[in-house]
């Protein structure tokens, strides 16, 4: 009885999983077809697995450079967010005072502000100071990413005993050394969570870079996706190849870091 | 470490600078500009509440607010229903459990913009060709009406977010005490009774978290809206975030767009504060 029920559940689960993958299947098989073939049939595998669309899409997207831009902006932003947020959370958790409480409250309440509410003044002010470029973008990511990261680090730091700091201090270490050699390594599990949450968000972000990056050659992957959709006649065969190319790096990342990703996302939401 | 130490401020300096210039200053400036005739270059004269008063007769803004609300309510219900169902499936004793989790969660890692484009292809091309093959009129011309645009967005978001919500429900379901469920089973409680009287009350906090997470995500939706329907046909599927963007950067009505942005902030903040209130109340009860 029990077994038969489980088999039913399993069959249902697998059927749903196939349904979930269907959009990716459709994208994939059609990305190998010619324009005419897509017009005739969208559901079966292609007559021939031709890479012609990919060669064109690769060039049109300037793929290697675009991939590099996305990697550069994501990696630098996330490294800085991790370092600066851990430092700030450490200071806030070790110096208990009204100032710390106020600053923590400030960081947490900043999480309530939707991007659209600050978008217009942000872009005009940064524009006046000539900061609408990749450097400015990274700086903005630190500002937007710090709140949640500090919140998560702060929670983790409350479980790290202060006696650890004191012991290291007696041994002659200064504040920075205590933080960098003792505290930061202990925080590794939460660092993984913070890094993953920020990587997913920054890698996929579209609106902010679309407002900040205006020069050809510094676009990230999401910005380049519009190349195939800006015109009146859509080149679906090329667009689908481009979309597949854009997804490949994410799939590779997911393949290697699955467990940490799911754990990170779940921790970030539940805490 | 004390707050009067230099080291305290050095540790805080980078984030204070970034948060100050990126969030606090623009927020304060934005609030100020929303009471002026600011055009992006000159502050213009002080107009009091005029921008806010105009909002109430701005049909396009009100329509987008109504569309966003409808979309959010329908999506929140569907996403949570599907998410919980998926969580119950993958936490039961089945062999493919971890493979299924991986699959259901996958769409969340990919940007909303890209997902919207993929579904645009499905709704426009695949639906049309399947509809033709099986003779279903209703699969033709998707995204060309307000109705199909609405359901297109709902389908896209349910597919994307259900796996995310599933992960949250899993976290609570796996924290359930096994002895309790087994004890109920021995006492002869049916699957439905076990769910209704034991599992459901214990995962109740997961509902609050998931509901508000989906609500705030769907209410602030922009990327998927842009890539799937771009607000069309005739701006009828335009959500608030996109409406604010267009007011600012297409119509160049900066101060007016900023007033809309402040109202948007207030709605989002109220949603979040209600959640905090509910959580606090529950903690007191427990």
TrEMBL record, chain B:
Pfam families: BPD_transp_1
GO BP terms in the entry: transmembrane transport
GO CC annotation: plasma membrane
UniProt key word Membrane: yes
Gene source species: Planococcus maritimus
Name recorded for this polypeptide: Sugar ABC transporter permease
Entry's family note: Belongs to the binding-protein-dependent transport system permease family.
PANTHER family: BLL4140 PROTEIN
UniProt-annotated location(s): Cell membrane
Lineage per the UniProt record: Bacteria, Bacillati, Bacillota, Bacilli, Bacillales
TM stretches of this protein: 7-33, 71-92, 104-128, 148-173, 194-215, 261-278
Membrane-topology annotation of the record: Multi-pass membrane protein
Tagged with keyword Disulfide bond: no
């Amino acid at each position: 009885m029990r077994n038969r029920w489980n088999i039913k559940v399993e069959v249902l689960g697998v059927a749903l999983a196939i349904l979930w993958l269907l959009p990716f299947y459709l994208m994939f098989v059609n990305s190998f077809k010619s324009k005419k073939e897509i017009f005739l049939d969208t559901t079966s595998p292609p007559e021939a697995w031709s890479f012609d669309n990919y060669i064109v899409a690769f060039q049109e997207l300037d793929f290697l450079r675009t991939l590099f831009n996305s990697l550069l902006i994501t990696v630098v932003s996330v490294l800085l967010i991790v370092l600066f947020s851990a430092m700030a959370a450490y200071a806030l958790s070790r110096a208990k005072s009204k100032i710390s409480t106020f600053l923590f409250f400030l960081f947490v309440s900043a999480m309530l502000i939707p991007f659209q509410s600050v978008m217009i003044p942000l872009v005009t002010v940064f524009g006046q100071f000539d900061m609408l470029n990749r450097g400015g973008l990274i700086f903005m990511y630190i500002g937007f990413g710090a709140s949640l990261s500090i919140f998560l680090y702060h929670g983790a730091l409350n479980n790290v005993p202060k006696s650890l700091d004191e012991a290291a201090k007696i041994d002659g270490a200064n504040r920075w050394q205590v933080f960098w050699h003792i505290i930061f390594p202990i925080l590794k599990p939460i660092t993984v969570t913070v890094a993953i949450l920020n990587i997913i968000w920054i890698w996929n972000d579209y609106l902010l870079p679309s407002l900040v990056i205006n020069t050809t050659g510094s676009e990230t992957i999401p910005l380049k996706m519009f190349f195939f959709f800006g015109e009146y006649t859509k080149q679906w065969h090329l667009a689908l190849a481009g979309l597949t190319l854009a997804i490949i790096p994410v799939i590779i990342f997911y393949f290697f870091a699955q467990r940490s990703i799911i754990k990170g996302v779940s921790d970030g939401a539940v805490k | 470490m004390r707050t009067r130490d230099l080291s305290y401020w050095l540790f805080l300096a980078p984030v204070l600078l970034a948060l100050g210039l990126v969030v606090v200053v623009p927020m304060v400036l934005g609030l100020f500009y929303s009471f002026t005739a600011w055009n992006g270059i000159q502050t213009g004269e002080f107009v009091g509440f005029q921008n806010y008063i105009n909002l109430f007769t701005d049909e396009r803004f009100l329509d987008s607010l109504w569309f966003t609300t409808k979309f959010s309510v329908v999506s929140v219900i569907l996403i949570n229903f599907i998410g919980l169902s998926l969580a119950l499936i993958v936490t039961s004793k089945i062999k493919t459990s971890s493979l299924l989790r991986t699959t259901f969660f996958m769409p969340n890692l990919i940007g909303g913009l890209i997902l919207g484009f993929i579904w645009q292809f499905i709704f426009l091309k695949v639906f049309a060709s399947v509809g033709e093959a099986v003779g279903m009129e209703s699969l033709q011309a998707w995204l060309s009406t307000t109705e199909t645009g609405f359901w297109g967005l709902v389908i896209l978001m349910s597919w994307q977010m259900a796996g995310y919500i599933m992960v949250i429900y899993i976290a609570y379901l796996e924290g359930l005490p096994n002895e309790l469920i087994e004890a109920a089973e021995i006492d002869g409680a049916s699957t439905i009774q076990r769910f209704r009287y034991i599992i459901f009350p214990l995962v109740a906090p997961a509902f609050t978290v998931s509901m508000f997470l989906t609500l705030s995500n769907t209410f602030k939706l922009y990327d998927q809206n842009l890539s799937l329907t771009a607000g069309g046909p005739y701006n009828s599927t335009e959500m608030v975030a996109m409406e604010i963007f267009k007011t600012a950067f297409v119509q160049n009505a900066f101060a007016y767009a900023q007033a809309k942005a402040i109202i948007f902030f207030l709605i989002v903040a109220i949603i979040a504060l209600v959640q905090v209130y509910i959580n606090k109340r529950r903690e007191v009860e427990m």
